[in-house]
Design a protein that fits this description.
This protein is mainly alpha-helical. It is built from 17 helices and two strands. The protein has helices spanning about 5-25, 35-50, 65-75, 80-95, 100-125, 135-165, 170-175, 180-195, 205-240, 250-260, 265-280, 290, 300-320, 325-330, 355-365, 380-390, 395-425, and strands at about 55, 60-65.
Length: about 425
């Protein structure tokens, strides 16, 4: 956790503390009834099984069929027991995610606890002590909206802090594909809760629809992965339009990932930067060949036409929730800290560090590659251009990171060359 930015650390710590406080605050004065303990055990087992079969529907968001069990717990159990179902099952499920850091597991478990606790408190506040079957559907609806909203908001805030973007930016674009899935899981949870009133054994029957939802989730996830692969392939096809730039986006993505790691960005940031770098020129699908492949300097009208590719790439990617964060970087990869970039002439810190990483790697590959209008620039010229744009064309720390990588690669090349010469001599 020490590698996280301090706002992220504070927020994660606050959420974990809030989850623990929620459990303490809802601790009942009297012990639960025997029937409640049986219901608790069954729902806990169902929720744990669901957590062990989580499906990642995007890079940063996963869905589990345990939503059915935890929502049913929020409706039929006390807030304290419902929180135990959510938090306990989440911790057990995440226990098998060996690559997930401890702070990440605790944050996820606390998020489930707070969301389920909020849903349970809201439902009981609306429903009072009346039997579940006699309660107006308003209570169930309020509980579902609040439970979903709290969980998604907490994840969006921590991701926003991590990626330095507004947490609620384009909320609908990023979550609209997930809403039907969550709605179906909550509806199943409500029906399961109703069945508990007189037929506890009927909960076993809900394993079948939960399994069907899981299958649908996995199929949806597979289709999303296929869509992502198709978009990447489209970016490669655009590179092929010009033999001089073929492989450019792939190289830029390679450089950008290395620079992001050297800047000690978080894994989620590195993934977004690398993917956006791979797609940074996808908007050139709208650029005419006469402009894209012109062997000489562009005139004013042609420059204006070329500048449109940033917004065109953004418009293409923003429609897919999985690409929203990368879409913003694609739009800004020609912005400059001195305010002279395009398409929006952002200034200073308005230019995201991640966008500057893509920009400097884009420029570096362009300078070190042959183009239709010139050959690759000499090494010293490239280094001079990078130093000259430090703090004006690109953020200074980003330039320093790239220069460090270039120097590191040079030393490795020299060492490899020396080793080869020694091998030949012997």
């Amino acid at each position: 956790m020490s590698t996280l930015r301090w706002p992220v650390r504070l927020f994660v710590g606050a959420v974990v503390a809030a989850g623990l406080l929620a459990g303490v605050a809802t601790f009942p004065a009297t012990g639960p009834r025997g029937d409640d303990l049986i219901v608790f055990a069954v729902l806990f087992a169902m929720a744990t099984a669901g957590q062990l079969r989580a499906v990642h529907v995007s890079v940063k968001m996963k869905v589990t069929v345990s939503d059915t069990a935890t929502f049913a717990a929020a409706l039929v159990l006390s807030p304290f027991l419902a929180i135990l179902v959510a938090g306990g099952s989440s911790l057990i499920g995440l226990r098998f995610s060996w690559r997930m850091p401890l702070y990440n597991r605790l944050f996820n478990a606390a998020s489930w606890m707070l969301a389920t606790g909020a849903a349970s408190v809201a439902y009981h506040a609306v429903a009072g002590s009346a039997p579940l079957a006699l309660v107006h559907p308003l209570g169930i609806a309020v509980a579902a909206v609040l439970g979903y909203g709290v969980k998604v908001l907490l994840v969006d805030v921590v991701v926003g802090l991590q990626l330095r973007r507004a947490p609620l930016a384009s909320w609908w674009s990023r979550h609209r594909a997930d809403l039907p899935v969550h709605g179906a899981l909550y509806a199943l949870g409500a029906v399961a809760a109703l069945s508990i009133e007189g037929h506890l054994w009927a909960l076993v029957l809900f394993l079948v629809p939960m399994g069907l939802v899981l299958v649908v989730l996995r199929e949806t996830s597979r289709m999303r992965e296929q869509t992502r692969a198709a978009i990447v392939e489209l970016a490669d096809l655009i590179d092929r339009r010009d033999t001089y730039t073929y492989g450019h986006s792939l190289r830029v993505a390679h450089y950008a990932g290395r620079v992001a790691r050297r800047l000690k960005m978080q894994p989620a940031q590195i993934d977004v930067v690398t993917e956006a770098a791979r797609l940074h020129d996808i908007g050139k699908i709208t650029t005419p060949d006469r402009v894209l492949q012109k062997p000489g300097p562009l005139d004013a009208d042609e420059i204006a036409e070329m500048h449109k590719h940033c917004d065109a790439g953004f418009e293409l990617l923003r429609r897919m929730g999985d690409f929203w964060d990368g879409a913003q970087l694609v739009r800004c990869h020609h912005e400059r800290p001195d305010g002279t970039g395009y398409p929006r002439a952002l200034l200073g810190t308005e230019v995201a560090l991640e966008a500057s990483v893509i920009a400097v790697c884009d420029a570096y590959d362009a300078m070190t590659s042959d183009r239709i209008y010139r050959t690759a620039l000499p090494r010293e010229r490239v280094l001079a251009e990078l130093r000259g744009g430090r703090g004006t064309q690109w953020h200074a720390v980003v330039v320093d990171a790239l220069l460090g990588l270039v120097e590191e690669d040079r030393r490795l090349e020299d060492a490899s060359g020396a080793l080869a010469r020694v091998s030949v001599a012997t």
